[in-house]
Amino acid sequence: MVRAPADCTFCQIVAGSLAAPVVLESEPSLAFLDHRPVFPGHVLLVPRQHYETLADLPAEMLQPFFGDAQLMARAVEQAMEAEGTFVAMNNRVSQSVPHLHVHIVPRRKKDGLRGFFWPRQKYESPEEMERVRESILQAVRQLR
User: Fold this and answer.
1) What are the residue boundaries of the structural domains of the chain, listed by start?
2) For the chain, first and last CA: distance in Å?
3) Which of 41, 111, 125, 137 has the fewest Cβ atoms nearer than 10 Å?
4) CB half-sphere exposure, 119, CA atoms < 13 A
5) Residue 69's pLDDT is what?
6) Is 35 a catalytic residue?
7) Mapped to the 3 state alphabet, what secondary structure does 102-135 carry?
8) Are residues 99 and 46 in contact, defined by beta-carbon separation less than 8 angstroms?
9) Residue of 50, 99, 101, 103 with catalytic role
10) Residue 117: pLDDT band with limits 50, 70, 90
């Protein structure tokens, strides 16, 4: 484990000192809506402890963390009535926050997402974000 820098945004979210629209809380992980989603329902899954990259994640954390990633992929697809999901992570290069995180993005055929160009958008309103959050939370509860 890498010592968490005091300014790590994701560590602040995990600690509760920075608000985020949470959709999953488990022992190893926390998942929340990305504030600038590729598509509504774009979730970020982070380990509660600070690890910068996948290579830093201890072997004993692989199953519980990626078990949560699998759960979130199912929940996002179900909640957003998507045809599938795009699940990805960056390690250092293009990693906007240096804390391991998995992107779970709802996908539909012909949705315009091409390759690794991710045009970001904002939720239309806080109410839309809350509707999306509630829908994903409900799917998580059903799938657990």
Assistant:
1) 9-105+127-143
2) 28
3) 125
4) 4
5) 98
6) no
7) EEEEEECCCCCCECCECCCCCCCCHHHHHHHHHH
8) yes
9) 101
10) low
Fold of 9-105+127-143: HIT family, subunit A (3.30.428)
Residue in the structure block whose two tokens are 């509760």: 16
* Number of Cα atoms under 13 Å in the Cβ half of residue 127: 0
Tokens of 130: 């809350």
> Residue 109: what residue type?
K
Three-state DSSP class for residue 136: helix
pTM for this prediction: 0.85
**For residues 86 and 112, is the Cβ–Cβ distance under 8 A?**
no
54: burial class by Cβ within 10 Å (0-12, 13-18, 19+)?
middle
Cα distances (angstroms) measured from residue 128 to each of 41, 123, 135 = 10, 6, 11
Q: What is the pLDDT of residues 28-41, one digit of tens each?
A: 999 999 999 999 99
Look at strands 84-88 and 29-33 and give their pairing.
unpaired
Place of tokens 């599938």: 84
